[in-house]
Each structure stands twice: as C-alpha cells, then as structure tokens.
C-alpha cells in the first residue's frame, strides 16, 4: 500500500475510534446467555490486516471477547473439508430472512435449515464436522485451525460461557431435537450441542480475529487453509447470510462479506485487500453489533472497499 493510503487508513481509524468513544446509543448487550449480559458495553475495538501483511488497530483491539456466531465460519470451513459438497444435502445456501434462532422454516422444509449461519444450520454443520469423532477431538481441530489461521496459539475456549449457554440454550435444544426427528442430526442433540456451545465460546481479540480471517482474503502470501474456490463460496455465504435478517442491510451499507456474533464481534473480508475484525458488545435489532456495523460502513466507504 502506498504512503498516502496508509495515511488515509490511519486517519479513518482515528476518526472511527473517536466517534465510537463518543457514541451515546450503543445498542443492547445480548442477555439470553447470562455470562454475556455482564459485558461492559462501553468497549470498542477494530483491527485491519492488509494484503501487504501489515496490521492496523484502534480502541480495545487487544481485549478478548466471545466470538459466538463468528465461529460458524471456521466450523463451515472444517465441515466442507471433511464432507465436501455432500454437506449441501443437509443444509441450504439461501438467506432465511428470519432471526438467527428461528425454528419457523424447519417444519415446511423437512428439517433442512436454510443456510450454515443461522443457528439451525450451524448446529447441522457442527454435527457434520464431528463425523464420528468425540466433541473434544472436533474442538481440538477447530482450535488448531483458528490458531493456525491467526498465527497465534494464545486462543482458547471460555468454559464458563459454554456452561452458561448450555444451561439456557432451550431454543437450540429445540432446533436440534426437531432436526433429529427429521433425520438431519447424526449425533444425540446433547453431544452436538455440547460441541456447538463450546465452539461459540471461543474467545479472541480483534487483532487475532482479523489475522484469522486472512485465509478468506484470497490474497497472495496469506495463510492458505482452504482451496481458492471454497474461499469464494464461503465469502458468498457471508455476504448473503452472515447477518441473518440483517444481511441485506449489511450488504447495502457495507458492501462486503461479513459474519457477526451476539458477543458483538464481526469478521469482514474485503477480498484481495483486507481482513477486518470489529467488536462492540451492544447489538442492533437484528442481533448484530451496532457500533461495529457503523464502523465498518465508514471504513469501507472511506477506503473505497466493496465487492460491487
Ligand atoms: O447459539 C447461540 O445462540 C449463540 N451461541 C450464537 C448466536 C449468535 O452469535 C447469533 N449472532 N448474532
């Protein structure tokens, strides 16, 4: 990147950081997982890795947070690695237009979830990724994948968050049992959900998450964790389904593939240019980070990054 682009990025990051610090309406922290309800909503961090490998951050970019549904991207990469296109007989590739935890479509669609990023779809993906292995082995593989992608071994699962969600995850149990009744879950719901809740409880900082997203940039010199064709397809699913019933709005405002989590994190990919992680715990009405979305909207517009 040229010196003037570096200057522009520094200016934009400073502006985003200052605006986030001054923002009064920060959205609402998720409270259906008790352990997450206690997170301080005043926090905000953002980190960008560019195609030249340089990393640029602002705010609380070194504070670990619960990546929650952002983990579904890594789980999908692993499940596709294990099953290839056979995965698509068990989960679709269409936006749902419904909340992340909705059960509505499953009844009319034979227990086959619309896409791998809504909860029902992600539970099927985890079930498929288990592929006869114990949850502990799958979680070990998931951590190895994320650590290799981020080039950082200091990435762990927060057991208290996983426990907290296990105790209150009645909706996910309902989804899993319903899909099992349709023959679309190979393992006992308790087993698959045990793996799924721990997967969601991975903690990362923005700097780690931005580095972990490098394998989706499709740029030379970045870690190659999956084949290039698969990188394009995962990005396509992030663009169309990564923000649930807010996916169209995110694509309209930001113009880049992104995957959000109820912990307030979002991983955003500017293909060929950047991997971006943003975190602010307060959520908007669709359950996506409010300040995080605003920040990447500004970043993409000011830097001229868009897939369109
Ligand atoms: O399954 C759940 O409800 C959470 N572990 C993850 C949901 C989530 O992150 C939805 N994202 N906005």
From TrEMBL:
The keyword Acetylation applies. GO terms for molecular function: glutaminase activity. Keywords: Acetylation, Hydrolase. It is an enzyme of class 3 (hydrolase). InterPro entries: Beta-lactam/transpept-like, Glutaminase. Gene3D superfamilies: DD-peptidase/beta-lactamase superfamily. Substrate binds at residues 69, 119, 165, 172, 196, 244, 262. It catalyses: L-glutamine + H2O = L-glutamate + NH4(+). The keyword Acetylation applies. It comes from the Bacteria. It holds the Pfam family Glutaminase. Its EC number is 3.5.1.2. PANTHER family: GLUTAMINASE. Homotetramer. Belongs to the glutaminase family. This is Glutaminase. The gene is glsA.
């Amino acid at each position: 990147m040229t010196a003037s682009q570096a200057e522009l990025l520094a200016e934009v990051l400073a502006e985003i950081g200052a605006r986030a610090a001054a923002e009064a309406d920060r959205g609402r922290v998720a409270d259906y997982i008790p352990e997450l309800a206690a997170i301080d909503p005043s926090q905000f961090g953002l980190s960008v890795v560019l195609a030249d490998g340089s990393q640029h951050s602002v705010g609380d970019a070194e504070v670990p947070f619960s990546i929650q549904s952002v983990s579904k991207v890594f789980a999908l990469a692993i499940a596709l690695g294990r099953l290839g296109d056979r995965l698509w007989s068990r989960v679709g590739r269409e936006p749902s237009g419904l909340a992340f935890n909705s059960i509505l479509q499953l009844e009319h669609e034979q227990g086959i979830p619309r896409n791998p990023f809504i909860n029902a779809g992600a539970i099927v993906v985890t079930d498929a990724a288990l592929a006869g292995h114990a949850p502990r082995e799958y979680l070990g593989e998931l951590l190895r994948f994320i650590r290799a992608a981020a080039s950082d071994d200091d990435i762990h699962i927060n057991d208290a968050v996983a426990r907290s969600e296990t105790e209150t995850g009645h909706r996910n149990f309902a989804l899993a049992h319903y899909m099992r009744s349709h023959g679309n879950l190979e393992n006992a719901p308790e087993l698959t959900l045990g793996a799924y809740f721990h997967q969601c409880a991975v903690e990362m900082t923005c700097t780690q998450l931005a580095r972990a997203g490098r394998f989706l940039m499709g740029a030379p010199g970045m870690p190659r964790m999956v084949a290039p064709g698969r990188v394009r397809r995962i990005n396509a699913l992030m663009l169309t389904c990564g923000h649930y019933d807010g996916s169209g709005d995110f694509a309209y405002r930001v113009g880049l593939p992104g995957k959000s989590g109820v912990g307030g994190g979002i991983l955003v990919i500017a293909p060929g240019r950047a991997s971006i992680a943003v975190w602010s715990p307060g959520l908007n009405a669709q359950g996506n980070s409010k300040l995080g979305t605003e920040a990447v909207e500004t970043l993409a517009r000011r830097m001229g990054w868009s897939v369109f």
